[in-house]
Amino acid sequence: MKSRVSIKTIAEQVGVSTALVSYVLNNKNENRINKDVAAKIRKTAKELNYQPNQIARSLKSQKTQTIGLIVADIANPFSSQIARIIEDEAKKNGYSVIFGSSDESEKKTHDLITLFVNRQVDGLIVAMPEHSEDQILYLKQTGIPFVLIDRYFPTIPANYVAIDNYNAAGKAIRHLLANGHRRVGIISYKTSLHHLNERVRGAVDLLKEEAMVGEVRIDHAQEDVIKAIDKFLAGDNPVDAIFATTNLLTIDGLKYINSLGLKIPDQLAVVGFDETDAFDLFYAPVTYVKQPMTALGQKSVKILLDAIESNGSIESAIFDTELIIRKSSVIPR
């Protein structure tokens, strides 16, 4: 096996000290180092295919320069997009990201947290599933820095980054009301997760007695979306609009509405949540609540890195959203 190229190897070939090579390759004291010498060191390191010894670095710094990221469902466009933003932001700060997808499973979240802790990640960014309060308390006990993203638990003090879900839903409903819709069906998951319940609360508070809520089990989503829409459309006073609180629920709703032959927005207006390419491909491009994905991802990394460096006070950030108004909710006059 070919021996590993070390800093000593580079130093001997260039004719400088190992300390100087270390300074250059770690970008330290660059103003005090001759530029030609620094360029020669880097050129030699590249020619010899030098790779830093991460284990040695970790032992010296007591850090692995890795972050563990657990998303709810990597197949969901929201999760994959936020993961890419977090990965890019972490890389800018010298960190690598290890990914895991919980698939909304409390047990899988526990297993991933255990795996990442055993791999000695410097911190975690987690979108916790339902009933995972014990996992948060466990993380607090271990002392490992972590940030909750998208989902947070008001009764447990912790770092988190999220949106104002209540007002986000309010924007969607006010838009529908302004366009003449009075009876709105709300499709959401049957869950204890605070952020989704805030979306329902924000809609119901505006609609009052005109609101109808269809609850969907996460493991029976398509079946329950159909039942909810059937309920909304039954009777003498059917809904004239539907607000779905996630992108996947919106897509399932659109599929079923399309199969019924109902025309959007002429017979039924639709507003969704989160952006996805599927909304653009629908014959009536879908109005949706847009989350500030870049801000969410970047802020979660910043809070985590601050926590890694200081282990200080708890920090949270709540961002506003934007309603992207398109054809699915506006009847041509």
Automatic annotation (TrEMBL):
GO terms for molecular function: DNA-binding transcription factor activity; transcription cis-regulatory region binding. Coiled coil: none annotated. The keyword DNA-binding applies. PROSITE patterns: HTH_LACI_2. Keywords: DNA-binding, Transcription, Transcription regulation. Gene3D superfamilies: 3.40.50.2300, lambda repressor-like DNA-binding domains. This is Transcriptional regulator, LacI family.
